Amino acid sequence: MARGHGHGHGHGHRHSDSALETSARGMRALWISFGVLLVTAAAQAVIVALSGSVALLGDTLHNVADALTAVPLAIAFALGRRAATRRFTYGLGRAEDLAGLVVVVLIALSACAAGYQAVSRIIEPRAVEHLALVAVAGAIGFLGNELVARYRIRVGREIGSGALVADGLHARTDGLTSLVVVLAAGGTWAGIPYADPVVGLGMTVLIVLVLRAAAREVFGRLLDGVDPELVDRAELTLADTPGVRGVTAVRLRWVGHRLFAESTIVADADSTLLAAHTVAVEAEHRLRHSLRHLAEVTIHIDPAPHPDPDHPAHDHHAALAHHLR
After folding, report:
1. Angle at the Cα of 274 (from 270 to 278), degrees rounded to 5?
2. 293 with 159: CB under 8 angstroms?
3. 21: buried, middle or exposed (CB in 10 Å: 19+, 13-18, 0-12)?
4. For residue range 253-276, what is the model confidence (pLDDT) as tens digits?
5. Whole-angstrom Cα distance, residue 233 to residue 127?
6. Contact status, residue 16 vs residue 147, Cβ threshold 8 Å
7. Helices 131-159 and 54-68, interaxial angle, to 10°?
8. What is the pLDDT of residues 270-304, one digit of tens each?
9. How many CB atoms lie within 10 A of CB 3?
10. Measured between alpha carbons, how far is residue 246 from residues 3, 237, 241 in Å?
C-alpha cells in the first residue's frame, strides 16, 4: 500500500481554537484540584503532628504527591498550546504524555516514603494519640480526594486527556486509602498490636497497585496505544461511506489529548480525481463525527485492483513492492 499522496484536511484554525479551549479547561481543572488537595493535605499534616500516626502520615504524603502532579501536567498543557513548527510538525502535545512519566515517578516516591515510614514504626514503635482526630483526618482525605477525582476524571474524559483521567483515578484511590486510616485508628483504639504501621504497609501496597495502573495508562499512550473500540468504530464508519469499496488500514494515535488518524481506503479504479477526492472528503467528514477529539485526518485512496491477476492494473503498487517487503 502506498503511503504518499494522501488526502487530509486539517481545518487548522478551527482545530487550533479547540485545542486552546481544551487545554484551558485542563489547566483550570488542574489548579482547582491542586488547591483542594493542598488544603486537604495541610489539614491532615496538623493532625499527623498531634497524633504521630504513620498511616495518616503516609496518606498525607500521598496527597501532597498527588497535588504536585498538577505542576508537570500544567506545563505540558501550556506546551501543547504552542503552534506546530518545521521542527515539531505535530506540535508539542506529546509533552502531556511525558508529564505522565513524572506522575508515575511521584506515585512511586510516595509509595517508597509510606513503606519506609511503616517499617520504621514497626522497628521503633510509637504511640498514636488523638485517635478521634486521626479518624477525622482520614475522612477529610477521602472527601477531598473524591471531589478532585470526580472533577479530574470528568474534565479528562471530556477533553480526551488520558493523563488527567489517570491522575483522577489516582486521586480516587487516594481517597479510598484515606478510609484505611480510619481503620488504623480503630485498630489502635481496640488495642490491636502494630495496627497503625501494619495498615500503613497495606496502604503502601495499594499505592503500588495505583502505580501499576498509572504506568499502564502512561506507557500505553507513549507507545501509541488506543482503545481497540475506536479502531473498530473508525473502520465501520469508513466502510459505510458511499464510494468506499474497502478499508485496508486504519491507524490512530493520541498526541496529548488530540487524536490523529491515518487510513487507506479503496475506491473504483475508473474514478476521476474529483470523484475520488469527494469520497475522501465524505469519509473524513463522517470520521470526524464518529470519533471525538479527532484533530487531524489523513486518508490515502487506492484504486481497486483489476480482477484479472495477470492484468498490469491488478497491482497498482508493483513498483513499491521491494520497499514494502
Report:
1. 100
2. yes
3. exposed
4. 988 888 899 998 888 888 888 999
5. 58
6. no
7. 20
8. 888 899 999 999 999 999 988 888 888 889 988 88
9. 14
10. 16, 11, 10
Taking the C-alpha atoms of residue 247 and residue 263, their distance in angstroms, rounded to an integer, is: 8
Buried b / exposed e over 125-159, threshold 16 CB at 10 Å, is eeebeebebbbbbbebbbebbbbbbebbbebbebb
Query: Which amino acid is residue 310, in one-letter code?
Result: D
The structure's pTM equals 0.70
pLDDT at 311 over 60: no
State the cell numbers at 306: 483489476
Number of residues written out for the chain: 325
Please state, in angstroms and as integers, the Cα–Cα distance from residue 100 to each residue in 28, 76, 157, following that order. Answer: 18, 9, 16
pLDDT at 319: 65
Mark out the alpha helices in the chain (DSSP H runs).
Answer: 12-51, 54-68, 70-80, 95-123, 131-159, 162-189, 195-222, 228-239, 273-290
- Give residues with Cβ within 8 angstroms of 236, minimum separation 6: none
pLDDT of residue 16: 43
d(CA 62, CA 227) in angstroms, rounded, equals 29
CA 10 to each of CA 13, 24, 260, 295, 313: distance values in angstroms, whole numbers, following the listed order? 8, 21, 10, 7, 32
Query: Which of 41-45, 60-64, 92-96 shows the lowest per-residue confidence on average (mean pLDDT)?
Result: 60-64
